[in-house]
Every structure is written in structure tokens, then in C-alpha cells.
Amino acid sequence: MQIRQLPETLINQIAAGEVIERPAAAVKELVENAIDAGATRIDILIREGGASLITVQDDGIGMTADELSLAVERHATSKLPDDNLVHIAALGFRGEALPSIGAVSRLTLTSRPRDAKNADAAAITVDGGKKSKPAPAAHPAGTRVEIRDLFYATPARLKFLKTPRAEAQAVRDIVTRLAMAYPDISFSLTHDDKSVLELPAADRLERLQQIMGRDFAENALPIAAERDGIRLSGFAALPTLNRGTSQYQYFFVNGRPVRDKLTVGAVRGAYADFLSHDRHPMLCLFLDIPPELVDVNVHPAKSEVRFQDTALVRGLIVGGLKHAIAAAGHRASTTVAEQTLQSFRAPAPSSAVSRWDGEYRQRPPSYKNLKGMAGAAYTGSYYASNLALDDAPATRNFAQDAPAASAPEQQNLSFPLGAAVAQVHETYIVAQTADGLVLVDQHAAHERLVYEKMKQDLASGGIARQSLLLPEIVEMDAPAAERLLGRKEELEELGLMIESFGPGAIAVQEVPALLGASDIQQLVRDLADDIAAYGQTVALKEKLEGICGTIACHGSVRSGRRLTSSEMNALLRQMEATPHSGQCNHGRPTYVELKLHDIEKLFGRK
After folding, report:
1. Which residues pair with 359 in a beta bridge?
2. pLDDT for res 541
3. Nearest to residue 285, comparing CAs of 216, 229, 219, 236?
4. Using CA atoms, how far apart are residues 550 and 527, in angstroms rounded to an integer?
5. How far apart are CA 491 and CA 463, in angstroms?
6. Three-state DSSP class for 193?
7. What is the β-pairing status of strands 135-136 and 41-47?
């Protein structure tokens, strides 16, 4: 076959297939151009998910008639003044977006420079790759880009578009990501004449609240770290505010939204100490890095980047996140208390509601039916849930039958977690604070304390060990025993001394002193499972936190153990002084704090 030069129209259509694969990609390119043009307000309108109409209007610097004619030519750009692909300071720089869009749609550009009069506005059209000459137009300062019938010139591409609703959601995702990076710009998005987004200019945290919700803003930790000229900023949620997917994680490199495996892995490593593998933190991170240290020209859609020093970037992200979480101390997210209060607010049974005088009013149940209601949830103002009555006379003094509660020490009420007053079901500690109460899961809380102590001991030279009077013999299958013995030296660093005791058996000689009277048999079996999960090729030191977490779980105060008042208060004081004590090693909260005014609302006092 003879080699030939492809026609310009076909070249632009091929470029459109790489850069503009769906309406959201076209919106992304146009909004990035508006941001580069110094816009303070960007309005986006789409119809049918963007397939039939897309308009993006801004109040940026605008273009002259001559610049309009150049803007729709391939590889024409104003964003590389020195022709240096290493120093890229703008979002767009290839000069492919507008000609690619014009090759597969009906494109109209109308613009006027900021410092020009209204008569100096001009418009140009590109219909399926055919460009017209600029013509005078009426338009305010800035630029308006209108795309009609996207992909009409390449019908095959239309068959791959999703439903208008799905395409509109993709457009919204693109706009929200760019709005996060540029909170000083106002954004609006309209779909089929319905307002989808209206984001006025704001500071960064306020903009994140507009998009990610009030819960995130209330529980966001500020991130600030810098190393070798690379600066990390943004906000990350407390570990107790997490989600089942990673869709609430946003990353930006020099203001550019990216999806990068390095950043995802760094976040997972930073939160591995606080969340189980199936939970994901909410965060929004901004990385400002010298342009020569990052390559943004590795993907046609500019959604991926490549760092020159990946280890430095990963270390900065992990260190910045861990430092912020440590600075939060024992703090847990406010959503923990809200979820607890919500569990008390069950809907009233339909049998307790009747129509009376044209209005729905609550009818108190008769005394005969009270026994049948015992143990059932009832939210009326007459009786509490789980009410149990007998036939005792109404004058009975129930206070005489109740055990006397010890009064909390007044000086302890000033502590953040208050003073312990009771233990419920030998599992939960009830503490009174100056303005409410705190419920503590004693096992989860002590597990975190033991865990942090083990990490501290490891960092300072080793975990204290205690010898067993008689070795503990643990029987297991031969492969599991071999895995443990193969990591014998590494386990010694964690305070666990083991020896072989024949085929399929392990003799435990020494254990970490923090374990106390724990189930050594189950601990050793759990460690064998952990090593099998990590793989023989991975050093235990690389998975140290996971191994420590397993040991800490076995060395913690177990549920069902009765604690004295002094022990409960000592646990509360240790929690206040220990970083990360607001959540256990699996990301669950260790305590719930309820304010007095919230409790009063439950009983209708406010």
C-alpha cells in the first residue's frame, strides 16, 4: 500500500477520539481554558447530557478576531511562551481541544477582550472541521464556547455514549473537581434548564463543604507539609469518618485533578493504622511541585502525571497525613454522636397514632397493654423504650431498689472524657463530663492504647518481654508452623520468642509484657494467618503495624471484664494522653460523646 498524508479533517477526528471521548471531556477542556484565561465566573449549560448542546461562558481575558482564527487551528496555544514542555504552568497547553471538538461537532466561539469595546467582539464557527471567517458579534468581555450535536460528524462514537443522566453526572464530576481546585472562581452548571450546581466563590474549606458536605467540613483535619520545595496542603477527615469506596478522595497536582496510583497507595499506607482494608478516608489533597519535577504530558486527557522522585512524594503524603491525625489526639468525628442519637429516634408505631378532631395526635396506651409493649421500641412522650412493668402499686418507691451510684469526682469533670460513673454489661464505661456524657468501649479503647505503646517501644529499641513459667505449646498444621519459624527473628523483635516443638507444633517461650493473661494459643494462630496473608516475600517489618495490631488486640482489656472506678478513670486519662485513641485499630470509634442539650432533646426537654 502506498504511504500518503492523512487529510487535516481526519487528523482532527483522530485527535478528537483521543482527547474528546465523551461530553464530560469536552467540558473539561473548555473549563480549563476558561481558568487559564483568568476567569472569575464560569457558567456551564448542557442538554441531553451534553450530546446535543454544551455552552461554557467565562469572564476571562477574551480573544481578538485574529486570535479566534488561530485558536481553532491545531497546536495553536498561548500557554507555552518559551516552547518549554518542562515548564508547564497552565492546565491546557497542547492546542488540540478546540480543533478536535470542531472536527466532530458544530462549534461556535464568541469572544471579546476585557479592554475592548463591545463592537470589537467577534465570532467564528467550525462545522465538522470546516472553519468560517471571524465575523463581528455582540458579547460582553470574556468568551462563550457553544458546541452543538457533539459527534455528529463521527456517528460511530455516538453509539458508545451512555444515558443522558450518566453523561450529565460525568460532567458534574468534572466541574466539581475543578471547582475544588479553584475556590476563588464561581461555577454554575445547568442541565436541561435545571440548576445542578451553584458554587459561589469561597475559601477552600467552605468550597469543600459545598461539594463534600457539612460532615466533612466539621471533621476535616488541615494538612500542611513541605519538603525539598514540594508543598502538600488540603484537608483529610478523621479516621472515624470513612466511606465504603474511594470516590471521596480527590488529588490535585499544581491545580490539576489527577488519578494517580502513587497518591492512592500513599493514602492507604497513611490510614492503614486506623482503618480496615474495606474502608476509605475522605480527603482532598493539593500538591504544589516545581514543574520540572513532574511530567503532565503523559496522557492525552492530562488525567495522569509522572513524578521524578516518587519516594519523596509518597513520603510527604504519608508523613503529612499521619502528622495531622496524630495532632487530632483522641478526637473522634461528630458523626459518631449523630449516628448514636439517630438510633434512639425510631418512628412511632402506627398503633399509637389515631385520627382525632381532624388532626393526628398521640394516644397513650392503656395500662392493660403495657405488659405487651415491654421490650418494644416506643418513642412516645409517656413511656421510654424497653419498659418492663409488673402489677406493683403505683406508689412503689423504685429508687429504693436501685443500687447507689457513686458521685463522679468533681475535679475529673473538667477532663475531656470526664469522670467514670458506671460500667454497663462489663463492656462499656459511662463517664460524666461538664456538659454531657461519654460512652467508652473498653476493649476498643485499650486495644488502641496497647497498640500505641508497642509502636513506641519498637521505636525506642524493643518491646519488653516476659518469660513464661512453662512454655505454651501451640499445635497447628505443618505449613503454618514453618511460616512462623521462618520469621522467628522478626517475631523476637515484637517480643515473641518461639521454638520448634516437633512437626506441626510451636513452643512459646516469651511473650510481650503488655499481653498479660491473654490467649497465647489464638494469638500465635492469628499471627500465622497474618504471615500467610502478607506472603513469604514480604518482611514483617514492612507489615509491622498489622502484626502489632494483632498482638494488641489479644493484650487488651476484654469485653466482660469488670473494672473498678480507679481503673476506668485511669483508662480515660490514658486515652486523653494517647494519639489516635478516638478510634480502634480497625477505624471504629472507641467512644461516643453526647452533649447535654442532645440528651435533653431525646426526652423532649428542649
Report:
1. 356
2. 47
3. 236
4. 7
5. 11
6. coil
7. unpaired
Q: How far apart are alpha carbons 293 and 227 in whole angstroms? A: 13
The parts of the chain modelled with pLDDT lower than 70 are 9, 11-19, 78-89, 92-95, 117-119, 298-302, 343-411, 458, 461-462, 514-518, 533-560, 585, 606
**Residue 353 cell numbers, joined:** 397514632
**CB-count burial class (<10 Å; 0-12, 13-18, 19+) for 27:** buried
Where along the chain do its domains lie?
A: 8-199, 204-327, 417-606
- Cell triple for residue 229? 520545595
pLDDT at 173: 95
Query: Which residue has cell 514453618?
Result: 482
HSE at residue 217, side-chain half, CA atoms within 13 A, is: 12
Residue whose entry in the numeric block shows the C-alpha cell 426526652 = 603
Q: Could you tell me which CATH class the domain 8-199 is placed in? A: alpha beta
CATH topology of domain 417-606: formyl-coa transferase, domain 3 (3.30.1540)
Q: In this predicted model, what pLDDT tens digit does every residue of 68-113 receive, in sequence order? A: 988 888 777 766 656 555 566 678 666 678 888 888 899 999 999 9
CATH architecture label of 204-327: 2-Layer Sandwich (3.30)
* Maximum alpha-carbon separation in the chain: 107
Cell 461556535 belongs to 108
- pLDDT, tens digit (0-9, with 9 covering 90-100), for 297-348: 766 666 778 888 988 999 999 999 999 988 887 777 777 777 777 766 655 4
Torsion angle defined by CA atoms of residues 115, 116, 118 and 124, in that order, rounded to the nearest 10 degrees: -110
Span 360-372, pLDDT tens digits: 334 444 433 433 4
At 582 the pLDDT is 84
How far is CA 84 from each of CA 10, 81, 92, 306, rounded to the nearest angstrom? 28, 8, 14, 17
pTM for this model (two decimals):
0.67
